[in-house]
């Protein structure tokens, strides 16, 4: 019967399925496997997925569990309704690793780290894990020996060679940085040169093959600068002559460029946001914008929301509540700079997982499913990271 269906129609049907289903259907027959493994289909699937992006939610519970959800991303949230309703689907559970913490989202993968900061022993191993929320796959990475009290790590993606890399920095050791390239075969940390000792602050973001994060000199508590790390060449660049007012800015992807959101907390009945966009990396030139968001009864508490980012297609500023619980709804807010309008979107689906306590939520925009991630041989199929207790044998880099 399948032989009578044109391949174009078969491809169109499969393009409408989630990536986890496509991965299963590859094993049904040689014909389906041949169609679904072609680079043409893989790239077309990613293009379609980018055209219908999703919201990704990472909910952390008191015992250290993480639950991952995703929902459709509203294309036009500005209707006549005062509030829209979207249902989030449960994706996977990362179970009971008490000291593991969320670190970063990059190109469809989520990165978790236990850096061992709680240990008085400077030689404690740091533990790394990544997961693919679209499929429930995970990978436990080789341990890295923590050489002093602090360790800062970031996940980057090189879109040219299609490679993910984990960058780890020891801030008080000159030139002491490590990098791990994800892929098939034996994974091993490598030592790379870092031309300046610095201490990263907060989470980083990877945009078009460049990993950005805010930092300061390891012995200076007043001066801040932007670090640009090219994931492919593994070279550092420092933007240190822009005296921006550091107040915990949110790093975002603003139409393919680095954006920094600064928030004014002195306004009681509104949110004042300043957006700095890195217009030219080589010249260190920034464009600066200001936005004034009035709650209009849609945002109950301004201190309880934070900026997620800016949508890739429409340029809307999106905010979300910091916490969720069973006894109240969870909201995401869309602000249109052109219309000067604010729309509230209620996200349902957390209730069965939450209790009366408040649980922190990380939200990410424009999540797309990529079949190339499904093909990565570093992943294992699982419904969760219970196996996380079985750490891999440590593989330390040569001095």
From TrEMBL:
CDD domains: F-box_AtFBW1-like. This is F-box domain-containing protein. Pfam families: F-box (PF00646), FBA_3 (PF08268). PROSITE patterns: FBOX (PS50181). NCBIfam families: F_box_assoc_1. It comes from Microthlaspi erraticum. Residues 1-48 form the F-box domain. The lineage of its organism: Eukaryota, Viridiplantae, Streptophyta, Embryophyta, Tracheophyta. InterPro entries: F-box-assoc_dom_typ3, F-box-assoc_interact_dom, F-box-like_dom_sf, F-box_dom, Kelch-typ_b-propeller.
């Amino acid at each position: 019967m399948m032989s009578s269906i044109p391949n174009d129609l078969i491809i169109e049907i499969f393009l409408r399925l989630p990536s986890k289903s496509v991965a299963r259907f590859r094993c049904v027959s040689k014909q389906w496997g041949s169609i679904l493994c072609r680079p043409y289909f893989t790239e077309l699937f990613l293009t379609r997925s980018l055209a219908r992006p999703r919201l990704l939610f990472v909910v952390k519970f008191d015992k250290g569990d993480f639950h991952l959800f995703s929902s459709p991303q509203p294309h036009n949230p500005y209707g006549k309704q005062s509030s829209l309703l979207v249902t989030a689907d449960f994706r996977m559970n990362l179970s009971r690793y008490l000291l593991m913490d969320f670190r970063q989202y990059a190109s469809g993968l989520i990165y978790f780290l236990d850096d061992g900061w709680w240990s008085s022993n400077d030689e404690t191993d740091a533990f790394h894990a990544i997961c693919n929320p679209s499929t429930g796959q995970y990978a436990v990475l080789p341990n890295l020996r923590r050489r002093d009290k602090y360790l800062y790590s970031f996940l980057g993606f090189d879109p040219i060679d299609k490679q993910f890399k984990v960058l780890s920095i020891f801030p008080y050791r000159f030139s002491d940085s490590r990098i791990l390239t994800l892929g098939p075969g034996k994974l091993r940390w490598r030592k790379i040169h870092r031309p300046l000792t610095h201490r990263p602050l907060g989470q980083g973001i990877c945009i078009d093959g460049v990993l950005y994060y805010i930092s300061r000199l390891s012995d200076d508590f007043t001066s801040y600068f932007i670090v640009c790390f090219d994931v492919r060449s593994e070279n550092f660049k420092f933007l240190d002559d822009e005296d921006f007012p550091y107040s915990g800015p949110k790093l975002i992807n603003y139409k393919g460029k680095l954006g920094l959101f600064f928030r004014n907390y002195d306004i009681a009945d509104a949110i004042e946001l300043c957006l700095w966009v890195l217009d030219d990396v080589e010249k260190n030139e920034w464009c600066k914008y200001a936005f004034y968001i009035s709650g209009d009864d849609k945002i109950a508490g301004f201190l309880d929301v934070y900026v997620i980012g800016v949508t890739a297609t429409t340029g809307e500023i999106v905010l979300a509540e910091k916490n969720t619980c069973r006894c109240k709804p969870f909201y995401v807010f869309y602000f249109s700079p052109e219309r000067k309008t604010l729309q509230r979107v209620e996200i349902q689906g957390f209730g069965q997982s939450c209790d009366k306590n408040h649980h922190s939520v990380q939200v990410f925009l424009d999540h797309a499913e990529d079949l190339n991630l499904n093909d990565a041989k570093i992943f294992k199929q699982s419904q969760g990271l219970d196996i996380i207790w079985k750490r891999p044998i440590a593989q330390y880099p040569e001095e």
